[in-house]
Structure prediction request, 296 residues.
Amino acid sequence: MARLDVTEVFHGILFPGHLHTQDSLQRALEFPFQDTDILIVSYPKSGTTWMQEIVTLISSRGDPHLSHTVPNWTRAPWLEQYYCADFLKASSSGPRVLTSHLPHHLLGPALQASNARVIYVSRNPKDVLVSFYHFHKMANFLPEAGSFPEFLDKFLESKLHYGSWFDHIKGWTNQAAALNLLHVTYEEMSMDLRGTLDRVSSFLQRPLLEDELNNCVKHCSFSSMKDNKMINYSLVPGEIMDHSKGSFMRTGQIGDWKNMFTKEQNQRFDSVFNSKMHDCTLEFVWEEEEEKGESR
Ligand code: PPS
Prediction:
């Protein structure tokens, strides 16, 4: 296993050395994608695990056996993490399901040669930031979170591990037309899980019967996933994730940022957001009550 306390810097982006090596990152950039591959891409804390569960359940037509017996990092391994090649070798037949947090400018070229299906998952960045902040407190393979104001500055200055949220979302969504890409938001999953399952199952060309869809909805609800040790990261040893300091499946809500941001922090965030996203037409859902698709 790679070391826990080390950061890998790859193309100027920081990655946890516990899971990434220069070799594993470089191998991801040269990955020979196949047309049948399904690739889930996200910036951390955007709903990655949720989409892994959705894809697993759609592929098994709502049967939870796989999701109850195989950890998510084995059934949908992160392409850039060092163990990926071994898991792929060991996996059974059927479309390969892969996950990645890499930005488009790094991974895009490898995808160009194939028609692999890409599911890009995004979440409003204030909730991403808050979720990531809490995750830093329990994840011993990430640097100390520091104070919330310090963490917020690092997010806005794109100094956190995995690089810039702004570059990530703009890079992938700007290139959507050039790829076989479906963009799904965390908020859409939260407000209309059944509709999202429908959209993803159509994209994967795996239409579901009503009963199968009902089972998918049931097994990828927050409460089911929170209790599923194959997906809630409780299997990860305490020295890697300190379970006394938090829970991976934390609140699962839209708008939790309101419990952390002061008025001034919110103004500062909005000002940086507006300047960095002025060339982006995406709309974000910032709180639960808003209508689907409505912006701030
Ligand atoms: S990671 O570390 O990048 O893989 O994290 P990621 O899976 O992208 O994001 C973790 C957040 O997703 C929430 N989550 C869910 N919310 C609602 N319903 C379901 N089923 C669900 N599954 C995961 C999880 O709770 C984290 O968000 P926060 O805000 O911290 O609760």
DSSP finds 14 helices and six strands in the chain. Residues 125-138 form the longest helix (14 residues). Strands lie at 7-10, 13-16, 38-42, 97-100, 117-122, 180-185.
